[in-house]
Amino acid sequence: MQTLVLDEPGRLSLTDTAEPAAPAQGQALIRIQRIGVCGTDIHAFRGEQPYFNYPRILGHELGAEVVAVGGGVSNVKPGDRCAVEPYMTCGQCPPCRRGKTNCCQTLKCLGVQTDGGMRELIVVPADKLHPSDKLDFETLALVETLGIGKHAVDRAAPEPGDRVAVIGLGPIGLTVATFAQVMGAEVIGIDISQKRAESARDLLGIKTLVLDPDTPIQDQWSDAQGESPLIVFDATGNRTSMQHAFRLPVGGGRLVFVGLVLGEVAFDDPEFHRKEMTLMSSRNSTGRDFREIIEMIETGRVDIAKWVTHRSDLADWPGVFEDWLTPGSGLIKGIVVL
Predict the structure, then answer these.
(1) Angle, to 10 degrees, between the axis of helix 194-204 and the axis of helix 171-182?
(2) Is residue 86 within 8 Å of residue 109, measured between CB atoms?
(3) Cβ-contact 189, 197 below 8 angstroms
(4) Where are the beta strands (DSSP E) in the chain?
(5) Which domains does the chain have, with CATH numbers?
(6) Does the bond joining 55 to the residue before it have cis omega, within 30 degrees of 0?
(7) 3-state class of 84 per DSSP?
(8) From CA 101, how far away is CA 62, in angstroms rounded?
(9) pLDDT tens for the chain, residues 1 to 338
(10) How many Å apart are CA 202 and CA 31, to the nearest integer?
(11) HEC states along 113-128?
(12) How many angstroms separate the CA atoms of 63 and 335, rounded?
């Protein structure tokens, strides 16, 4: 079967691999139909992704069709269209027992710590499949991305009318802004890219602030936006941005790191204490997030129809991926088609 492998930073190869064995007890064999491309794939391609080894089959944002199921499986059946929860967890460690499966002590994410879905067929635990008889494969492939934003917003728990800033208006920042809006927050998006700011305004109707990267963020905020935000989400995965973000929340506010940087982040402790800030990280999402997101899309509470800007067949993707990454490409979300 066709399989795409990231052999080393900057080198993708299309190869043939053996089809998987029949699904065992509790497993399902699925045919991958659509794969979302995200920042994790980009960082891995550039050699900047934490928790990553080469070679690796990428692909963790998956829309798939169930081909066969093993014994004891009742949540899906052959022919079902599903979003795939890509986090392989143990179910036994303390976080898993408390329902924090996203923090499993032995978690392996498809396409990151273990081989993913850039191939025709794969066997996964059936309880990681979330079916929908209403959504198409492309939409189902985007559920994982949406889960990152939803989980982060749930962590921060904004209330209606709260002022929220989202730094970094790539796909993950857009998902954060989307679910903050669902919660009734006043959302202001922040980016150094005029094009990304315009895309966020067009897609979500939010206010945006385009930063001068050489000027402290809090100075630009006070000049343009007035009162500081109660909650700040940093979705950049950029150390400088994350460090500057500490100065943006109002006293008693919250700062959530959604993006991940390879290395340490430093902050001024007296300023942190003066504001009595709450600092939190947000990692992945849970099965509950997947189920709630599917229901939100099915009922129209969340609309992502315009998010996909680039598409490629699996065989062609190695030749076009770098073009997607060039400045001015207009990439918001890319989809690989099998």
Answers:
(1) 30
(2) yes
(3) yes
(4) 2-8, 11-16, 27-37, 61-69, 81-84, 87-88, 108-109, 121-125, 129-131, 163-167, 186-191, 207-210, 231-234, 254-257, 278-281, 308-313, 333-337
(5) 2-142+307-337 (3.90.180.10), 147-281 (3.40.50.720)
(6) yes
(7) strand
(8) 19
(9) 999 999 999 999 999 999 999 999 999 999 999 999 988 899 899 988 877 899 999 999 999 999 999 999 999 999 999 999 999 999 999 999 999 999 999 999 999 999 999 999 999 999 999 999 999 999 999 999 999 999 999 999 999 999 999 999 999 999 999 999 999 999 999 999 999 999 999 999 999 999 998 888 888 887 767 889 999 999 998 999 999 999 999 999 999 999 988 889 999 999 999 999 999 999 999 999 999 999 999 999 999 989 999 999 999 999 999 999 888 888 999 999 99
(10) 34
(11) CECCCCECEEEEEHHH
(12) 10
> Can you tell me which residue has the tokens 């993913």?
116
Token duo for residue 284: 């992945």
The Cα 122–Cα 71 span in angstroms is 17
- Name the residue with tokens 């009742």: 74
The structure tokens 């100075």 sit at 219
